[in-house]
Specification:
The complex is a heterotrimer of chains A (320), B (242) and C (291). Chain A is an all-alpha fold and 320 residues long. Chain A contains 14 helices and two strands, in the order αααααβααααβααααα. The mean pLDDT of chain A is 88. In chain B, helix 3 packs across helix 4 and helix 4 crosses helix 5. Classes of the chains: A mainly alpha (320), B alpha/beta (242), C mainly alpha (291).
Chain lengths: 320, 242, 291
């Protein structure tokens, strides 16, 4: 096995065994990290591979959450059925936005702004819909915590942890597979130079759309997970631009377009945030906002001095 | 015998400026043709019309007995025409091998077979030793070879080379001419060149078409062209790089 | 719904819109010249608003927000200049997502610094003339709103003169048109970029001081302002100063009308809808130049 293969297997084993020695709080932090690792990987498909910057990915998290959650709350539809419905809804949404954007030749900053506009438009819309509960939010019934009810996605924290772990692992495997395949090569070609890609027989419009659709579909799973994990949905929280930013922080810090960037970034950011909280609490500083300022400063330094993200630099150091 | 490529009376104007007017020529399979002429004569416009980047205002382009004018660039490539760009466009973030694999994937779906085809193509242009290098690390002559290799990996029946000698020193030009000659001999791929560098045109082309102000003013072998009065008057007499 | 009511709402929208327009003008100048996507624009606006409240009530100075423009504007110029020179400059040639992250980090720092210093509650400025208004027929115009719009317009006109008539202004426009050409000609591009960012920051400062006389401010007001600025810049047209003001007025009026006719909380929906339509159908906006 290669050096990196061994390292991966080791980390994998650690993660599988984690619940055995981690407390409830640590487990919830780990679940959060894995969620962001997964969502970040989903976003990375569109950006890291195909080079299309989306700053409104919270749209898919929100729509999926509300669709599956809404079906559950209003019609008792279990999430195992709600999930595919949500995925279809988000994929169609992504295809619609993508077709519009690419048909009209929108790219770069303008595409990013377009995605923000769609997310904000939806957020305000959902604030006013009765079916979604409006700004007051939608609440899902919490089940008994002991039993593992996979069909309804209810159970103890450990169930959610493993679900998140499986999602993150699947996403990693999928992206690894894609990057070695024709799909991955074509996407990277498009990211590098669309004109050259066309001259090599690549139908750029269709392939970009594929990246958007896959990214949306993958992100929707995270949305359904989130809805049934937190059991509440508010348009402001779920569609807000800060949610979109949170999702992309991981991949950008970790390394856009790399396989391990999203996971590393998610881990680094969550641990950093928690670390800062802990140390401030230990120092007795209770001022709200101070923690985030330090967080912002660290972010700033990473962005300034590690332009390609943490992963490439780390990989070189560890010679993976 | 029907020609591989037939360009029939194509025209193109941009906002009132007639770039190409009623241009026609044919290219036989297995031959090497060249389009020459002063800057602004319309060579690149014709090229782009064949490659699908532009749509002719009038006229037809027939490739393997099939009209291709108005097709998208990727459709043109699928039909069997590969092209290079005058200002080379390597996929900078990919290695040399990966660059060519992108081309190879058009005809080979599986990554292993695409890789094999890519390595073979690189070998034909003597770049296989540099396969693992990032494309951004190549010198200009090598980038030109990469550009050709990448297009070649799509297994084209016709290869369009857009001023592939531009920016090369005389020795590098000779090397490129050698490589293209070898390529042509080994595979029989039909080639259409746009060129300014007469040295290369004389060495490679079977037939030459001369453009001036959007019109074809002369056709013939290289030997006939250099003696043609109209050509001497408007082109070779003024600016020649030999 | 009387004609007078609608007229009042529209006029209020126009006046507020001019202030929005000035804020957007700052963004347009930065985006159009330095080509950096300033996602911290709204946060800068929020800082300006807080600065005005401090100068008014905090230090016992009682400085009217419209007069606070001078110190706040000066401070912001320095801040903007320094930010561009030190932090942002290396990012001018980097990909968009990197620029975005940089300014998001700046925004996070600004927002939370405000939160730490001032707490989450809203703050405002209560001037003596707050409730005064001019009456013209059935129309009632807030004096404060009128002053705010006047200040915004004056600043915008001043900028127009600066860019059209002064050497420095022309040099900045040259950079925007042709970065490489500007370098070749010997313009000190880095300094001009810093100057431009400083100017953009001054726009924000003036707009902020004017805005706080109209609405209260909270630390989380930033993102909404940023998005609003982008909507205005794109609708009005990048690179056009008149476009930024026109866009601001349009958005101000449409938001006011949407608030009246639909629901106050839905007013931004119209702006985003408009952004989508403009991005798709006419990306250069109403008055923007075709690139």
């Amino acid at each position: 096995m290669t050096r990196s293969g061994r390292a991966l297997a080791l980390i994998g084993a650690l993660l599988v065994a984690l619940p055995a020695f981690a407390g409830t709080y640590a487990l919830s932090v780990a679940t959060l990290i894995l969620w962001f690792a997964y969502a970040g990987q989903a976003w990375n498909v569109m950006m890291g591979f195909a080079g299309q910057l989306s700053l409104g990915h919270a749209l898919y998290v929100g729509v999926a959450g509300y669709v599956a959650g809404g079906l559950f709350v209003h019609h008792g539809v279990p999430p195992v059925v709600g999930l595919p419905v949500a995925m279809i809804a988000c994929t169609l949404g992504g295809l619609a936005i993508g077709s519009l954007a690419f048909r009209f030749g929108i790219s770069g900053v303008y595409l990013a702004l377009l995605t923000i506009a769609f997310a904000e438009f939806t957020r305000i819309g959902f604030d006013h819909l009765a079916w979604t509960g409006g700004p007051g939010g939608m609440f899902l019934k919490v089940g008994r915590h002991g039993a593992w009810d996979l069909l309804n996605f209810r159970g103890p924290p450990i169930m959610y942890y493993y679900a998140a772990l499986i999602l993150a692992a699947l996403a990693l495997a999928l992206c690894a597979r894609l990057s070695r395949s024709r799909v991955g090569f074509y996407w990277r070609a498009i990211r590098e130079d669309e004109e050259a890609a066309k001259a090599l027989g690549i139908n750029v419009f269709r392939w970009k759309l594929g990246a958007v659709a896959l990214s949306a579909a993958m992100t929707s799973v995270a949305g359904v997970f989130s809805a049934f994990y937190y059991n509440s949905l508010f348009p402001e929280q779920v569609f807000g631009i800060h949610r979109s930013i949170e999702i992309i922080l991981g991949p950008i810090i970790g390394g856009v377009g790399t396989l391990f960037g999203p996971i590393l970034g998610a881990a680094a950011l969550t641990l950093l945030s928690d670390g800062i909280t802990e140390s401030f609490a230990a120092l007795g500083w209770e001022i709200s906002g101070i923690k985030q300022v330090s967080y912002g400063v660290v972010l700033l330094r990473v962005v300034m001095f590690l332009p390609r993200g943490i992963w490439p630099a780390l990989a070189r150091r560890l010679r993976l | 015998m029907t020609a591989l490529l037939e360009v029939n009376g194509i025209s193109k104007s941009f906002r009132g400026l007639q770039a190409v007017s009623n241009a026609s020529f044919t290219l036989q399979e297995g031959s090497i043709g060249a389009l020459i002429g002063p800057n602004g004569a319309g060579k690149t416009t014709i090229f782009n019309m064949i490659a699908g980047v532009l749509r002719p205002d009038a006229g037809t382009i027939v490739f393997q007995s099939r009209p291709i004018q108005g097709l998208r660039p990727d459709q043109v490539c699928l039909a069997g025409i590969g092209r290079t760009f005058q200002l080379v466009k390597p996929f900078a973030g990919l290695t040399v091998l990966e660059n060519v694999m992108v081309g190879a994937f058009l005809r080979e779906r599986s990554p292993t077979r695409a890789r094999t085809l890519a390595l073979q193509t690189l070998a034909r242009l003597e770049l296989d030793g540099k396969a693992a290098l990032p494309a951004s690390a190549l010198t200009l002559p090598d980038r030109k070879r990469l550009e050709v290799a990448r297009a070649l990996a799509t297994r084209p029946k016709l290869l369009l080379l857009d001023e592939v000698m531009a920016g090369l020193r005389p020795t590098e030009t000779d090397q490129m001419v050698q490589a293209l000659r070898e390529l042509h001999r080994a595979s029989g791929t039909t080639i259409l060149l746009i060129e300014h560098v007469m040295r290369a045109v004389m060495a490679l082309a079977d037939h030459v078409g001369v453009l001036h102000q959007g019109q074809v003013i002369a056709r013939g072998t290289p030997g006939e062209i250099v003696r043609h009065p109209a050509v001497l008057a408007c082109y070779l007499g003024e600016e020649t790089e030999v | 719904m009387s004609a007078d009511l609608i007229a009042n709402v529209v006029i209020a929208g126009v006046l507020t819109g001019l202030v929005y327009g000035l804020m957007a003008l700052g963004l347009s100048v930065i985006f159009g010249v330095v080509r950096v996507v300033n996602f911290a624009h709204g946060e800068m606006m929020t800082v300006a608003m807080y600065a005005a409240t401090v100068l008014f009530a905090g230090l016992g100075l009682g400085l009217d927000p419209f007069l606070a423009i001078i110190p706040v504007g000066a401070a912001f110029f320095v801040f903007g200049y320094a930010l561009q020179w030190v932090v942002i400059n290396p990012f001018v040639t980097r990909p968009e997502h990197a620029q975005f992250m940089l300014l998001v980090a700046v925004a996070i720092i600004l927002v939370n610094a405000l939160l730490a210093i001032f707490g989450p509650d809203a703050r405002g400025v209560q001037t003596d003339y707050q409730l005064d208004s001019l009456a013209m027929g059935g129309i009632l115009i807030d004096k404060t709103r009128l002053y705010a719009a006047g200040v915004a317009l004056a600043t915008a006109l001043g900028l127009l003169v600066f860019f059209k008539k002064t050497r420095v202004g022309t040099a900045i426009r040259a950079c925007a048109d042709n970065h490489l050409g500007a370098l070749i000609v010997g313009l000190h591009v880095r300094r001009l970029y810093a100057l431009t960012f400083g100017i953009g920051a001054v726009c924000v400062a003036v707009a902020g001081c004017a805005m706080v006389a109209l609405v209260d401010v909270t630390p989380s007001a930033g993102p909404a302002f940023t998005l609003l600025a982008f909507v205005i810049v794109i609708v009005g047209g990048l690179g056009s100063m008149a476009g930024a003001l026109l866009g601001g007025v349009l958005i101000g009026v449409s938001e006011a009308l949407a608030g009246l006719l639909v629901a106050p909380s839905a007013k931004s929906m119209f702006s985003f809808g408009l952004l989508i339509v403009v991005l798709l159908l006419r990306p250069r906006g109403l008055l923007g130049r075709k690139t």
